[in-house]
Recover the amino acids of this structure.
C-alpha cells in the first residue's frame, strides 16, 4: 500500500465522528437571513451617506435588490416557492365573508380545487350520472370565471384526487387517471404511470420543486407504491420504500419539509394490530424509518409543512382496513417538529368534533368544517349544529381559538373546498357558490 | 423563498461532510461544528452568485479551510479531544483500536503546521486535485506538492505511515 492509500485510510478513520451531528438548518437560515438584512441595511446606509455627501438627491438604489434564487438543487429536491407570511391573527379575526360569482360548472361534490398563484382552478367532481369532465378557473383580480378544457378520458375522471401545482401546471392523479393541466395553453396532457404504480389508488402527492412525488396504495390487498415524476423530462422514477414485514399500507399521507420528505403509511392486517409507519426520504432518494414513538392508532390527516413545523389536522382512530365503527373518535390536531417529529397538540377548536380541516395562512390556522353535524336524525327533525364552511381561527402566538362569522347561506348542504390564496380564503361550496373570507 | 429552500437542502446534504473535514482540520468535533456553521452562513450570503451545488460545496470548503487555518493561528491546540476514555471499561478490542488510531491521527495532524495539515486534508480526504487545492488555499501547485510531501514525511516519522518500501498492516 503506498503513502497516498495509507493516508486516505487514516484520514477516513480519523474523520469518524463520535456522534451523528444534526444539520441545524433552521438556525443557519435565521442567522444567514439576519446577516443578509444587516448587510443590506449597511449598504443602504453607506449608499445614502455617499449620495448625501455628493450633494445629490437620493435615488432608488436598485443594487440593493437581492438577486433571485438560482435554479437547481441537489437530488430530488429543487427550488420551491417561498412560504407566505400572511396576515396576522388579529387581522384575520376582522375578516368577513363575501359572496363571489358562482362557478359556471354548477353543483357537484369533491371537485379538484387548487390555487395556481393567480387563479382558482376547479375541475371534475361527482355529478349526477358520474364523474364530471369539465372545470373552470376564477381570477380574483377580475372577479371572473372562465371554463377550462376537459381531459377527455372516457369513463374516467377526478373526484377529490391528490393534486399539486408545479408552478406551471396542475398535476392530478387518482391512480387510474393521471394528467397535467397547463392554464397557459388550456390543455390537459395524460400521463402513464410506471408499472409498479399501475392499479394503485393514489392518496397523496407533493411537489419538491423539481419532481412530483406520488404515493398510492393497493386497495384490495394493501401495499404501497411511491414514484417521482419530473414534468421537465416526462420521466418517472420509482421510489417505493421497504416497509416492515407484514405491514400492508392502506392509506398514505406525505409532506415535504426543508430537507426531507415525510411519509406516513397507515397499515393493517386482518386479526393483527395495526399502526402507522413513518418514513423519511432525503434529497438523495434514500429512505429511513423514523417511526420512533409516533402514535400508532390515529390517522395522519392533511400534513402541511408551514416552513418551520408540520401542521396536522384533527384525525380519527386508525385500526386498519375494515375498522369503521370507531371512525368518529376524533383526535385534536398538532404541530410536529420536522426534525424530531415531536408533537405539540393544538387544543380542540369551537367547531365540532368531526375533524375540521386546518388551513395554514402563514401565521395562523383557519379550521374549516367540511361535514354536517347535528341531532335528531329520526322523524325528520334533524337539527344541524355544525354545518360545512363553519370557520374558526387559531392564533398560534396566544394558543387560543376564536369563532369567525358564519359564511353567507350557512348551513350549506354538502362539502366545501377551502383554499388559501395568500391573503384570503376562497371556499367553493357543493352548490357551486364561491365565497371569500377576506379583510 | 427558493434561495432558502435550496440552501436548506444543501445544508441537510453536506453538513456532516463539512463537519468531518473540520474535525480533521481542528481535531475537535465541537470546534468542527462551529467552523462548519460559520462556513455555511457565509455560503448562504454568497448563495446568489454560486450557480450550482458543486460551486456551493467548493465555496463552503474553501471558507471552512480558511477559517480553520485562521483559528489555528489564534488558538492553542495542545489538547486533542478523544471519543472515549483512555481506559475504556468495556469495549470491543477492534473498536477500541480504531478509536485509538483515530485519536493518534488527529493528534499527529494537529502537530503539523496549518498549511501542511490543510493540504493533506484537502488532497487526501476531500480528494481535491493539486490545482484545486492550490486555488482553495491561495498557494501555488508547487507549494501544494512540497507541503504534501513534508506532511506525509512527518506522519511517517510519527509511525502512522509505514516507511517507504515496507507494508503497513
Amino acid at each position: 500500500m503506498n503513502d497516498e492509500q495509507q493516508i486516505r485510510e487514516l484520514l477516513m478513520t480519523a474523520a469518524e465522528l463520535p456522534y451523528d451531528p444534526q444539520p441545524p438548518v433552521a438556525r443557519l437560515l435565521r442567522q444567514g437571513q439576519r446577516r443578509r438584512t444587516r448587510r443590506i441595511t449597511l449598504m443602504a446606509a453607506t449608499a445614502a451617506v455617499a449620495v448625501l455627501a455628493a450633494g445629490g438627491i437620493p435615488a432608488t438604489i436598485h443594487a440593493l435588490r437581492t438577486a433571485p434564487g438560482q435554479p437547481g438543487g441537489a437530488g430530488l429536491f429543487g427550488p420551491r416557492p417561498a412560504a407566505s407570511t400572511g396576515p396576522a391573527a388579529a387581522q384575520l379575526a376582522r375578516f368577513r365573508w363575501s359572496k363571489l360569482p358562482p362557478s359556471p360548472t354548477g353543483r357537484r361534490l369533491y371537485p379538484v380545487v387548487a390555487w395556481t398563484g393567480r387563479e382558482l382552478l376547479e375541475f371534475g367532481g361527482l355529478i349526477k350520472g358520474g364523474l364530471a369532465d369539465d372545470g373552470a378557473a376564477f381570477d380574483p383580480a377580475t372577479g371572473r370565471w372562465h371554463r377550462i378544457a376537459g381531459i377527455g378520458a372516457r369513463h374516467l375522471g377526478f373526484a377529490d384526487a391528490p393534486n399539486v401545482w408545479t408552478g406551471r401546471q396542475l398535476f392530478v392523479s387518482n391512480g387510474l387517471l393521471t394528467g397535467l393541466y397547463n392554464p397557459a395553453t388550456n390543455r390537459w396532457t395524460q400521463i402513464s404511470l410506471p408499472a409498479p404504480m399501475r392499479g394503485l389508488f393514489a392518496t397523496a402527492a407533493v411537489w419538491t420543486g423539481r419532481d412530483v412525488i406520488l404515493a398510492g396504495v393497493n386497495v384490495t390487498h394493501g401495499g404501497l407504491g411511491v414514484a417521482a415524476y419530473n414534468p421537465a423530462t416526462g420521466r418517472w422514477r420509482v421510489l417505493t420504500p421497504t416497509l416492515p414485514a407484514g405491514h400492508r399500507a392502506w392509506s398514505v399521507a406525505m409532506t415535504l419539509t426543508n430537507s426531507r420528505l415525510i411519509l406516513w403509511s397507515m397499515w393493517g392486517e386482518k386479526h393483527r394490530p395495526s399502526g402507522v409507519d413513518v418514513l423519511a426520504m432525503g434529497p438523495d432518494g434514500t429512505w429511513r424509518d423514523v417511526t420512533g414513538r409516533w402514535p400508532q392508532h390515529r390517522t395522519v390527516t392533511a400534513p402541511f409543512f408551514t416552513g418551520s413545523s408540520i401542521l396536522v389536522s384533527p384525525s380519527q382512530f386508525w385500526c386498519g382496513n375494515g375498522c369503521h365503527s370507531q371512525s368518529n373518535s376524533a383526535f385534536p390536531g398538532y404541530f410536529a417538529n420536522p426534525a424530531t417529529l415531536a408533537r405539540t397538540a393544538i387544543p380542540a377548536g369551537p367547531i365540532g368534533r368531526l375533524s375540521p380541516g386546518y388551513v395554514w395562512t402563514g401565521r395562523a390556522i383557519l379550521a374549516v368544517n367540511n361535514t354536517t353535524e347535528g341531532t335528531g336524525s329520526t322523524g325528520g327533525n334533524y337539527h344541524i349544529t355544525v354545518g360545512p364552511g363553519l370557520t374558526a381561527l387559531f392564533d398560534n402566538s396566544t394558543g387560543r381559538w376564536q369563532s369567525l362569522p358564519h359564511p353567507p347561506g350557512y348551513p350549506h348542504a354538502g362539502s366545501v373546498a377551502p383554499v388559501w390564496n395568500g391573503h384570503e380564503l376562497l371556499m367553493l361550496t357543493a352548490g357551486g357558490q364561491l365565497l371569500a373570507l377576506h379583510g | 423563498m427558493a434561495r432558502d429552500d435550496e440552501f436548506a437542502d444543501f445544508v441537510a446534504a453536506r453538513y456532516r461532510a463539512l463537519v468531518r473535514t473540520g474535525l480533521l482540520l481542528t481535531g475537535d468535533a465541537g470546534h468542527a461544528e462551529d467552523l462548519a456553521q460559520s462556513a455555511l452562513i457565509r455560503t448562504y450570503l454568497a448563495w446568489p452568485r454560486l450557480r450550482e451545488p458543486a460551486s456551493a460545496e467548493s465555496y463552503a470548503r474553501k471558507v471552512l479551510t480558511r477559517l480553520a487555518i485562521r483559528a489555528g493561528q489564534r488558538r492553542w491546540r495542545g489538547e486533542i479531544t478523544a471519543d472515549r476514555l483512555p481506559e475504556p471499561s468495556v469495549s470491543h478490542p477492534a473498536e477500541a483500536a480504531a478509536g485509538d488510531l483515530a485519536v493518534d491521527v488527529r493528534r499527529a495532524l494537529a502537530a503539523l503546521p496549518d498549511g501542511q495539515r490543510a493540504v493533506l486534508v484537502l488532497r487526501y480526504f476531500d480528494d481535491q486535485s493539486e490545482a484545486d487545492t492550490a486555488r482553495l488555499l491561495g498557494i501555488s501547485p508547487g507549494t501544494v506538492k512540497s507541503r504534501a510531501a513534508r506532511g506525509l514525511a512527518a506522519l511517517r516519522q510519527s509511525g502512522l505511515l509505514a516507511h517507504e518500501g515496507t507494508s503497513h498492516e
Summary: The domain at 1-76 of chain B is CATH 1.10.1740 (Rna Polymerase Sigma Factor; Chain: A).
